[in-house]
Design a protein that fits this description.
The complex is a heterodimer of chains A (about 140) and B (about 170). Chain A is built from 2 helices and 9 strands; from the N terminus they run αβββββαββββ. With about 140 residues, chain A is α+β, with helices and mostly antiparallel strands. Chain A has a single domain, classed as STM4215-like (2-Layer Sandwich), CATH 3.30.2000.20. The N and C termini of chain B lie close together (about 5 Å). Helices cover about 15% and strands about 35% of the residues of chain B. Chain B contains 3 helices and 9 strands; from the N terminus they run E-H-H-E-E-E-E-H-E-E-E-E. In chain B, a hairpin with a 7-residue loop joins strand 7 and strand 8. The chains are: A alpha+beta (about 140), B mainly beta (about 170). Chains A and B meet through strand 4 of A and loops of B.
Amino acid sequence: MTTQNNPYDYAEAIQYQLADIVTPVPVYSNFNRNYAKQPKFLTWQLRNIHQDVYTGGIQSNKGIDTPIFQISIFAQNKADAFNLSNDILQSLHGYSGQFGGPGGFFIAKADVHWLYNSYDNELGLNQIFLDCMIYVPA
Amino acid sequence: MALINKVLPGYTATLWMQDDVTPVALTDTQLGTWTAQVATIVGTEAGGSGTAGYVVPVESIPAFGADDASAAYSVAGARTGAKITTQNQVTSMTITAAWNSADAALLQIRADGYSGSTIRTYVVAVYDGEDTVAYAFNARVGGLQWDMSPSAEGKFIFTIHPVGGNSYGWSTNT
């Protein structure tokens, strides 16, 4: 028997954890064009919240949650972008423990995929995208 | 503190072993005793005190517990045969670890396998960030293999064979 985790708890924890890793670089949920004037910043998006459901009429007969959040790094300087991605990898990949600070929750594992880098000529920003799956007891 | 009351990801499990070259395995009673016994083998990362143990860097913890076995027989004139559950062996655990030739735990397991007679206490610990549930057993190591397939990192594969009898126990920090 398990409980359904609250997506808002995930959002709060992701914001805290990423900000803690890359401080003082600003971290935002989702992209806003107004941010593009900043020399470097991060955005994140949460997706794929889903606890497996198991048989029977008991709603709490569920499994663990494995949500994914995408991290998008933007920086005018290419080295800044790559080094920020390294900070996140070193801190988060394989991490097990408290996630999201004192108000957060325990995660059994964080699994980061460094996806790809790119460059937006119009905004003049280097971009790097990462996916992070977290394994959350429920 | 209460017992862990959650459904946990498999990632919460870790495998620990006594770190002495010539270990004194825990007694049957001690295998079911957390404080000052099992807790000393389990590291702080899994809620133990970690003064007398190595973590074994396994890829995943295989199923553990007891083997399935029963005595089955036919009953003449009855509608079905019958089964009686027998006292089963404690399950052997075949472990795959990424091979690091300088890892202290893997080197000790290699030495134990070479010896063939070393009995050591192993612990599977499940930890939710606050509390630990531990399954401890005494075992020898056998079946050492190294797999250097070029499709992945080099693997060290070995089997932990429990000594049987009553040499396993459950404990918790609460």
